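PROTEIN DESIGN WORKSHEET
SECTION A - STRUCTURE
LENGTH: 438
TOKENS:
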């Protein structure tokens, strides 16, 4: 008969196994559903030589076929545009007789495997692709950790977008204001400034939640748009005089991060110098280690997780719920603010909202897919990086619109949330059976 300790160990093994396997299954199922959507709902039209030959065999007059020849050079994303050109090419009478047949034969359905091959080949087949995936994943690691950390405290931080842009602008302002400082001082100042600005912006909803009971979802949503509008106002205030682009002054060279390519090439790894992946990746990985250590190895992390698990029990145990609520949101905001290190110091060297747009909201999906664990956030960020970079190849090599990437992200998120609930119920079922077993 198994001891209580052995039963707990078995349960932990089941829970760990389910926690690892269920997101993988959810992602695979999401790609299957995405393939069905591509196959059934996405179609285009093209009059190729093969189509014209088939139409000739089915009795379409040679004069009509000749008139259709001028349309061979064009792809049609929808039937409406095809019909318009068909009527212009063959006339209304011939369209009435053969239009339906021509449209049916000209319809093209894209092979989902071809689409997925284009995505993953562009992202993973070359070192340049891998570099771009990592570059795109780096800010998502920060915003994903910001959501995950707050969630460990039972808080739904959807304010990563605002915390990120506030931190990004603070980094930029420091970078173009203290231009005479050496890199050894200016880079840490920029990093700390971004964390401080993001932490303040995250601490506001944390304070309101802790002291006034205002739900963090409401406050973070409102603060997102306040931050975006405020930074856009500041962007125009610090815009170069003769520039028509809405961006700020350029940060000092001593505040700019170097790309990883020179270092990789120096150790014999052939890597494109134009690749955008930069040393902000190191900060992102250190932040992952910091969050993992904070949550699992410190008193503060224990208190944060206790409050998230059961705030009433935590308070009865002497844990200050209000303090930990504020600290969790402030630390989460500081982490989100560090996304500007990659976007400003490592890439654009200016503040422009366009390079930040959507990264905070994508961080919510990254945290959910990663099950709010630091390692899971990294893996989920890489998945989103693959989809974002690989999606650029879709417009070139397939007829599927790039927006299918947004659909895939949404489906993946839905399946992961559902699989999480299924995992919880399976774990409870296993636990009950082990209690009943003799």
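SECTION B - SEQUENCE
RESIDUE ASSIGNMENT:
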């Amino acid at each position: 008969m198994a001891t209580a300790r052995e039963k707990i160990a078995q349960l932990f093994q089941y829970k760990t196994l389910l926690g690892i396997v269920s997101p993988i299954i959810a992602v695979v199922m999401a790609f299957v559903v995405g393939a069905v959507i591509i196959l059934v709902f996405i179609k285009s039209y093209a009059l190729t030589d093969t189509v014209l030959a088939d139409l000739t065999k089915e009795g379409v007059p040679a004069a009509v076929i000749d008139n259709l020849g001028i349309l061979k050079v064009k792809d049609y994303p929808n039937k409406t545009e095809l019909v318009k050109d068909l009527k212009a090419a063959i006339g209304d009478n011939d369209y009435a007789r053969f239009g339906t047949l021509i449209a049916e034969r000209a319809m093209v359905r894209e092979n989902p495997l071809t689409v997925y091959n284009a995505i993953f080949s562009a992202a993973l087949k070359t070192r340049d692709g891998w570099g771009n995936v990592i570059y795109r994943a780096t800010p998502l690691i920060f915003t994903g950790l910001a959501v995950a950390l707050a969630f460990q405290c039972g808080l739904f931080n959807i304010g990563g977008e605002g915390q990120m842009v506030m931190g990004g602008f603070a980094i930029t302002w420091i970078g173009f204001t203290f231009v005479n400082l050496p890199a050894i001082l200016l880079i840490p100042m920029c990093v700390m400034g971004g964390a401080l600005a993001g932490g303040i912006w995250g601490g506001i909803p944390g304070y309101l939640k802790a002291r006034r009971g205002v739900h963090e979802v409401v406050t973070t949503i409102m603060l997102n748009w306040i931050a975006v509008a405020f930074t856009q106002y500041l962007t125009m205030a610090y815009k170069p005089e003769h520039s028509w682009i809405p961006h700020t002054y350029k940060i000092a060279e001593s505040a700019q991060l170097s790309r990883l390519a020179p270092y990789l090439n120096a150790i014999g790894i052939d890597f494109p110098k134009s690749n955008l992946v930069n040393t902000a990746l190191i900060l992102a990985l250190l932040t992952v280690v910091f969050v993992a250590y904070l949550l699992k190895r410190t008193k503060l992390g224990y208190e944060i997780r206790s409050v998230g698990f059961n705030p009433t029990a935590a308070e009865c145990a002497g844990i200050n719920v209000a303090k930990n609520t504020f600290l969790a949101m402030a630390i989460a905001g500081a982490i989100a603010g560090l996304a500007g290190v990659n976007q400003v110091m490592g890439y654009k060297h200016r503040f422009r909202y366009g390079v930040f747009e959507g990264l905070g909201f994508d961080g919510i999906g990254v945290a959910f897919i990663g099950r709010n664990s630091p390692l899971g956030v990294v893996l989920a960020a890489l998945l989103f990086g693959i989809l974002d970079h690989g999606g650029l190849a879709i417009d070139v090599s397939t007829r599927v619109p790039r927006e299918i990437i947004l659909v895939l992200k949404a489906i993946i998120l839905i399946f992961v949330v559902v699989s999480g609930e299924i995992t919880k119920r399976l774990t409870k079922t296993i636990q009950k059976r082990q209690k009943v077993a003799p």
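SECTION C - NOTES
The radius of gyration is 27 Å.
The chain has two domains: 44-109, 118-402.
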